[in-house]
Amino acid sequence: MTVSPLHALTSRRSMKFLRAPAPKPDELDQILQAAMSAPDHGKLRPWRFALIRGAAIGRLADRALDAVKRSGDPRMTPEKEKSVRQWMSEVPLFVGLAQKIDHDNPKVPEQEQLLATGASVMNILNAVHMLGYGAFWSTGMGTYVEEVQEALGFDPLDYRFLGFLAIGTPACAMPEAVRPDYREFVTEWTGE
Predict the structure, then answer these.
(1) What is d(CA 121, CA 99) in angstroms, rounded to the nearest whole number?
(2) How is the chain split into domains, by residue range?
(3) Which residues contribute to the annotated binding site?
(4) Helix 25-35, helix 110-130: angle, nearest 10
(5) pLDDT over 80 (residue 38)
(6) Binding site for FMN: residue ranges?
(7) Contacts of 174 (CB under 8 A, 6+ apart)
(8) Which of 29, 80, 92, 191 would you call most buried, defined as having the most Cβ atoms within 10 angstroms of its Cβ?
């Protein structure tokens, strides 16, 4: 059965529970190249990605979860930490997501740079799905703790860190997502 491009878009869903294998190198190239097709006012290409895989995932877990605990976040209970570490150990690939901020561009406001970065991430999510893998955009794991951002090479003065994509093979079957009717979110303006 041939799947239409529109069906591929409308059937995409977040999949938190992933396992190996991750996309093959040539597939990952295609996935990351899809990000380059995002709309981008001024051709700033503000998106930046850090690939984290193999033993680096354990090092990320140590660094990020310790940083979250030091930040005083009360949600990082021992049970939560154990759960996050277990989840991270199953995921074969994480992609750190950041927006490079062009502070001196009077033509492209920072919010447009952020939107372009979000569009590039959506292209990644769609490409992952179209190649038969799953992905989950997580803002846990210390996304809003500067120490984590800096550890990944994103200076908070020049980058806005946006979280991580977990990418791999779905670990379980997922029911089809129930989506709302678009008409609940649309009005028509006539100018009258």
Answers:
(1) 11
(2) 13-184
(3) 12-14, 41, 137-139
(4) 150
(5) yes
(6) 12-14, 41, 137-139
(7) 13, 15, 134
(8) 92
Contact 65, 141 (CB under 8 A): yes
15 pLDDT exceeds 60? Answer: yes
Q: Which residues of 27-39 are buried (b: 16+ CB within 10 A; e: fewer)?
A: bbeebbebbeebe
Alpha carbon distance 1, 8 (integer Å): 13
Distance CA 140, CA 86 (A): 14
**Cis status, amide bond into 21, omega within 30 of 0:** yes
Q: Does domain 13-184 have CATH number 1.10.10.10?
A: no
Q: How many residues does the chain have?
A: 192
CB contact at 8 A, 61 and 142 = no
120-133 tens-digit pLDDT:
999 999 999 999 99
| Token digits of residue 26 | 């040539």
